[in-house]
Amino acid sequence: MLKFHFLLFFFAFKIAFCLPAPYVTRISCGAQNDVRSSPTNTLWHKDFGYTGGIRTKANRPSYITPPLDTLRYFPLSEGPDNCYNIDKVPHGHYSVRIYFGLVKEPSFDNEPLFDVSVEGTLVYSLPSGWSNHDDEQAFVETLVFLENGTTSLCFHSTGHGDPAILAIEIQEVDEKAYYSGPGFGRGTIFRTSKRLSCGDQNPKFDVDYDGDRWGGDRFWSSIMTFGQNSDKPISTKSTIKSASVAPNFYPQALYQTALVSTDNDPDLTHTIDVDPNKNYSVWLHFAEIDPSVTDVGQRVIDISINGNIVYRDIDIVRITGGVNSALVLNTTIPVSGRILTITLHPTTGTHAIISAIEIFEVIPVESKTLPEEVKALQSLKLALGLPLRFGWNGDPCFPQHPWSGVDCQFDNSSNKWVIDGLDLDNQGLRGFLPDDVSQLRHLQSINLSGNNIHGPIPSALGTITSLEKLDLSYNSFNGSIPKSLGELTSLLTLNLNGNLLSGKIPAALGGRLLHRASFNFTDNAGLCGIPGLPTCGPHLTVGAKIGIGLGACVTVVVIATCITCWWKRRQNILRAKRMAVRDAPYAKKRTHLNHIQMTRHHHNGHHHEHTRTAVENGPPLLV
Question: Which residue numbers delimit the Malectin-like domain (predicted)?
Fold first, then answer.
């Protein structure tokens, strides 16, 4: 029995303490080494391999921003759109926070204005004057579900300074954090608009590090009064219990202060500035910490937003089951103006009470571009050597900042954006056209004219059945025209003029000229086969052409060898003749002398010895 209890304790301990901790990564932008920040000794990872841009020294615009010394900024020369792409982020619900910075150089615009997108959805546009506020304007915070294993955080230039990023935090939170009803999370992003800690003299920041590990860390502005009221702040050191209706990841410190209305004005009213024509999720936090309220029915309030009652007869003690227990209420409302007014009116008792307020802008998630088409465009970017000024980062069809030279169309069947046009003429491109271009299967128009693109025309282009216009004129394409282009039945315009193409034009393309198609093959010295171009010779296969080439080479070598042998033989003959001509007088005289000596031998025998000696010693000089 003792062993059984020990095993139960062991497994309970393992479950309680060995569960994986929430994923978190913090990046100190521009840092070349990991750093830690005070007072929490928080680890910030070095900035390596996430993006482009330039590292430099940083100025902190607010005490809220982490005490870090570097940032990364993105000059317009590197493109209007730049992104941090962070891989290996587990599927889940995340708090994503981006801190803005100021470049520590007097020559820079000290307050850049730019747009921020998370996962292809615009979440924030920096307002003028953001660097002069010690509040949420120093950073942007979103709650978002990440499902693809990566996080894409992009910064889009608006022509008012270079985007500068001080730090990035990505922290996993509870799946049900800020649950707002059916359809929660997957189709929306929450952007923090305002957090108010009521009755507290100081803002609360980093207090959440001591709270539930799934809660994240949050910034709470302090508020001592609602509007112009002389409200009464109260506080307690009692332990706050979380009611069943309240998420368990809020810090206790949040509920240990509150505002209570006064006798002169029993209502609590607060007005908050918001952007017009948007939806806002409002979260109201309560805990009955007022010592004067001890039982059910002693304080009942109605809650209205912008004049409309959204909650009636709220009795905190009754709902939570007692005092010092947390209650969180949530509602989502559309706001057409620039003001959001929250009013708490006591219907029983003489005072209203509230602990904290959170307001989130509800942002519909933008549809993304088909992943395979994004991948194809990235391949095209590398193969063509696209200049940095194009950018081509993030989502190609991001509505507010689409990629330059890319046309998009929404595909209702897939609920995704697709690429239906490429317009990159006269851009100084010097690479080649990759086969991956065929993955852009919704293309209707391609215009790459006036560049210096080389290599063959990919036969894979013939698989883009929707293609109506293909303009590759005035480049350096070589080789033959792929037969597959003749299978593009929708093709109406084909401009291949001004290249280095050769061979016979495919018969299918030649036949299309009779069906009101506009094709241009001029200024290609090697093309043939249609009226206006040279007549093609017998058609030879590639193997036959190689054989002819090798045969011609062998013939040239044999002829050269024969000529060389003939020339050497002729030189030898000529050399022999010259020697014979030179030696002819000597040979004649020698013959004549021998004749005389032999005659003397016959008639004068006693001179025999002398004659022999003369013959052996050569002829004497003749006078």
Answer: 27-362
Distance of CA 132 to the CA centre of its chain: 31
User: How high is the mean pLDDT of the chain?
Assistant: 82
Query: What span, in angstroms and rounded, lies between the C-alpha atoms of 188 and 180?
Result: 11
Long-range Cβ contacts of 454-461 (<8 Å, 24+ apart) = 454/430, 454/478, 455/479, 456/480, 456/482, 457/433, 457/481, 457/482, 457/485, 457/496, 457/501, 458/433, 458/434, 458/482, 459/483, 459/484, 460/435, 460/484, 461/437, 461/485, 461/488
| Residues ≥6 apart with Cβ < 8 Å to 477 | 433, 453, 454, 455, 456, 457, 496, 499, 500, 501
Distances in Å between the alpha carbon of 485 and those of 146, 230, 445, 467, 539? 41, 79, 14, 10, 20
Judge whether residue 174 has pLDDT over 90.
no
Tell me if 262 sits within 8 A of 231, measured CB to CB. yes
Q: Cα(177)–Cα(175) distance, rounded to whole angstroms?
A: 6
Q: Which residues sit opposite 87 in a β-bridge?
A: 150
Which H or E element spans position 407? strand 406-411
CB 392, CB 416: distance < 8 Å: no
Q: How far apart are CA 237 and CA 255, in angstroms?
A: 10
- Give the integer Cα–Cα distance in Å for 347 and 300: 6
pTM of the model: 0.77
Whose structure tokens read 């007692």? Answer: 322
Burial class for 126, CB neighbours closer than 10 Å (0-12, 13-18, 19+): buried
How many angstroms separate the CA atoms of 175 and 178, rounded?
9
CA angle 69, 75, 80 (to 5 degrees): 125
pLDDT digits 0-9 by tens, 399-446: 899 999 999 999 999 999 999 999 999 999 999 999 999 999 999 999
For the chain, what's the residue count? Answer: 623
For residue range 134-172, list pLDDT tens digits in order: 666 789 999 999 988 889 999 999 989 999 999 999 999
Instruction: Decide if 56 contacts 31 (C-beta within 8 A).
Output: no
- 608-617 and 542-603 helices, crossing angle to 10°: 160
DSSP characters over 304-347: EETTEEEEEEE-HHHHHTSSSEEEEEEEEEEE-SSEEEEEEEEE
